Amino acid sequence: QYREYNTSPIQFTSAITIMFKAFDRSEVSTSSQVKASVQRGIKAGIAKANPKITEEELDVLLPKKPPLVQYKVGPHMMLYCRKSDAEEGSTPSDEPVFFQHRDGPILPTLRTIHKYPTLDFTSVTADKGAIPFILGGANIMCPGLTKPGQSIMPPDGEEQDAQGFDKPGLSKGDGVVIRAEGKEHAIAIGVMMMSSVDIRAKNKGVGIELAHSLGDGLFLTDGL
Fold it and tell me: How far apart are CA 7 and CA 9, in angstroms?
């Protein structure tokens, strides 16, 4: 448990974050090559969740060849990896690029985000006061997302709903890249626990369940 950086309730660490906190290669049980039809489905899911990424950019991110390799981690986690370019004299390895918990959204790893900084993944911005808690593995509470000027509902559109919030908003269960106020690079990946409309309206409770953050075991794993 982690105390909130303001007067909000205690923050809890998610099961996914606990899994990746001290993740290492020994936790991988099985691996198999992803079928072409499955890879197309993964690509389509990523495109739907990140509408600002173009088809051409997706082709660079997920080329048809070589196919992805999927690794099972524990009973409910899947890592989707691709062959990384090995330096001369070194052994090729499989680089984690996306992961999925149960039937949840397919989420990019932070290494993927940092490797392709121009790709416009669906993102939110957290208050700078939340940074140490996020890096410690804490879920993000609503007050850390509702400071004026924070991007909790990307993209900011002109059309508004009945409550006066911009459309399109984010839905419960959506995967998001988490950026921090004043920081250039993404610091975490998470899943919306409420819609963006509810986060602003309620402004209490867990807004985003953390899945993966800078410095965790997955981030420190460059290949399998």
Answer: 7
Q: Model-level pTM?
A: 0.82
148-177: pLDDT as tens digits: 766 665 444 445 555 555 556 788 999 999
Total count of domains within the chain: 2
Q: Which of 91, 93, 80 is nearest to 39 (CA)?
A: 80
Of 139, 141, 144, 138, the residue nearest 126 (C-alpha)? 144
Q: Is 73 exposed, middle or buried (0-12, 13-18, 19+ CB in 10 A)?
A: buried
Q: Do 100 and 144 belong to one domain?
A: no
Contact 218, 99 (CB under 8 A): yes
Question: Domain of 103?
Answer: 25-114
| Beta carbons within 8 Å of 5's beta carbon, 6+ residues apart | 127, 129, 130, 132, 133, 144
Any domain includes 203: yes
Contact (CB, 8 A) for 178 and 154: no
